[in-house]
């Protein structure tokens, strides 16, 4: 039997850093680990926007990744 426990969540900001020679947008990802899984999505988004505001790049989107820890019992 397998036991499942929710682990930490991570947040990744996708920032648009400019354009390539063909005019396609270029992106850079900046990751932040150990986001509380219980954090409200609106709060996580607000923090992501605030962090992106500290850069000179435009925020394209925010991605949340939830980790689940599996153990055999």
UniProtKB/TrEMBL annotation:
Pfam families in UniProt: DUF1659 (PF07872)
All copies of domain DUF1659, residue ranges: 9-71
Top-level taxon: Bacteria
InterPro entries: DUF1659
Name used for this protein in its record: DUF1659 domain-containing protein
Organism field: Tumebacillus flagellatus
